[in-house]
Design brief:
By secondary structure, the protein is an alpha/beta fold.
């Protein structure tokens, strides 16, 4: 199978960004999600209403006219709301449509397909009217597709899968830069973590730079989140999640080649939570009063090699270039015996590994570990006798307590200190660090709702937060997708424990 392209982005506070929104009006960029009363949407949508000088709001779309906002916007703050669908080029060029839009000073574009907005409205009186509303001090907002077309550069067609775009960055795509460029020198993305689009956003930026020579900043607005940009170009994050800001500097390098995965290094990245502000003209960041300075914890590694294999697919582990073959190269001879630490409650991964090693002529033993065995002398003796240890099929919620101040744990630490090789497979990768992130499966939106928690790891790799399988579905083989709980959980745990490095594997 084709392996994923691994994207490593340097996390750093930015210097200068390109100039953001024009000084005339203001912009509300919403990353998508279902609005509701007394929910995440209240603050950014109230901001839209109150920044419309005369509180006259028009909700526009290219196909239908929902009436939900007719009651929601006035509930947030007194205003009048009109709804209109502009469904054809002829209607978009109708003078009546032009006059209707100019009667309002707050415009909201609903979600859907950004290509339809461009195809039906670009170069028409509708586009002209929207620009005029903005230029006279009005506010324009949009969610999802409506958000994307309000930035300088918009992705309108081509492969949508971040997985495919990362693997084949030369794939055909259309980036439009001459329709409603209200948040200038930016390319806005929606549903950034929810749909794994943090992976495709840097490719869009690089492809646009390759074609035009322009370096625009990326605004990755997450679902249930907005960035509101005032007339001075100062953006504030509101809602329930985060806005990722990516931009170029002199050290940024990338590679786009046919037949090769996308490669990138040293692109500046800020992940701004609600309450944080950024001046999109100067790059100055204003944290909320609750923010604290980041002081990184120490970084250390054991004497021996540590192999991390983030795949949950056993076929990857056993492949010619897989992690088990890599471990085999570290073994010294026929007298070696590999220990496979596993939970008796989930034995399948351990038995698969043992069968594979046996087929290669490598001796191994499964070291079953649970509450009843953590102080067992015979179990500790098996650890001591192992020339390498593999972790497969363990529970991140319980393994560390079997190795902390126990007989088995003491034997393991002694072997690690002597330089023994270790291999962590699939979910067990998280256990190599100081902290593992728990709650990944309790809810698909655990990261948004604050349901994630930390559990102790084995602490072999200190100062690192490891997040395996961030681009893999639970079936491990097909339909690859990004897990926002894992990618967002990595960032959360890094901040919570002041860890200087995070690895999405």
């Amino acid at each position: 199978m084709v392996r994923p392209a691994f994207l490593i982005i340097a996390l750093a506070f930015i210097g200068l960004l390109p100039r953001g929104a024009s000084a005339q009006g203001s912009v509300v960029l919403v990353g998508g999600g279902s609005e509701n009363y007394n929910d995440w949407s209240d603050n950014p949508y109230r901001w839209l209403v109150t920044h419309a000088p005369n509180r006259k709001i028009a909700v526009l779309h290219y196909s239908d006219t929902t009436t939900w906002f007719t009651s929601y916007f006035p509930w947030l703050s007194p205003c009048t709301v009109s709804n209109q669908a502009i469904t054809s080029i002829a209607q978009a060029n109708d003078s009546a449509t032009y006059r209707f839009i100019l009667e309002h000073d707050g415009i909201f574009l609903r979600g859907g397909d950004q290509a339809q907005y461009v195809a039906l409205w670009k170069g028409t009186l509708t586009e002209q009217a929207l620009r005029e509303v903005f230029q006279r001090g009005g506010v324009l907002g949009g969610t999802s597709a409506g958000e994307m077309v309000l930035s300088d550069v918009s992705f309108t067609s081509g492969t949508t899968s971040p997985w495919t775009i990362l693997r084949t960055p030369t794939t055909s795509m259309t980036l439009v830069d001459d329709f409603l460029p209200l948040a200038t020198n930016t390319l806005a993305e929606s549903h950034t973590n929810e749909r794994g689009r943090i992976g495709r956003l840097p490719v869009f930026l690089a492809r646009y730079k390759n074609t035009t020579g322009r370096s625009v900043a990326g605004l990755g607005v997450d679902v249930n989140t907005a960035i509101v940009i005032d007339s001075n170009g100062v953006g504030e994050v509101m809602g329930g999640s985060a806005v990722a800001v990516l931009h170029w500097d002199a050290e940024t390098a990338y590679s786009i080649e046919a037949g090769k995965p996308f490669a990138l290094q040293n692109m500046r990245y800020d992940n701004l939570l609600p309450g944080w502000k950024m001046n999109l003209g100067t790059g100055e960041i204003t944290p909320p009063p609750s923010a604290v300075a980041f002081t990184a914890s120490s970084l250390s590694m054991p004497a021996g090699p540590v192999i991390l294999d983030g795949s949950g697919n056993a076929a990857d582990w056993t492949a010619t270039a897989g992690s088990l073959r890599r471990l085999q190269t570290l073994l010294s001879g026929a007298t070696d015996s590999v220990g496979i630490v596993a939970s008796p409650a989930t034995p399948s991964s351990a038995t698969t590994v043992q069968t594979t090693l046996a087929g290669w002529g490598i001796a191994s033993r499964i070291i079953w570990i649970d509450e009843g065995r953590k102080n067992d002398a015979a179990t500790a003796a098996m650890v001591t006798a192992s020339t390498a240890i593999i972790f497969a099929g363990n529970s991140i919620d319980s393994l560390s307590r079997f190795f902390s101040s126990t007989t088995v744990g003491a034997a393991f630490q002694s072997r690690v200190s002597s330089g023994m090789s270790t291999l962590f497979l699939g979910e067990d990768v998280m256990l190599a660090g100081e902290q593992a992130v728990s709650g990944l499966y309790s809810n698909s939106y655990s990261a948004y709702y604050g349901l994630l928690s930390q559990v102790p790891g084995l602490g072999l790799l200190k100062g690192m937060q490891l997040a395996p399988r961030f681009f893999q579905n639970t079936n491990n083989t097909v339909g690859y997708d990004q897990s926002e709980n894992r990618s967002m959980g990595m960032l959360w745990s890094m901040g919570h424990s002041r860890l200087p490095f995070g690895f999405l594997i």
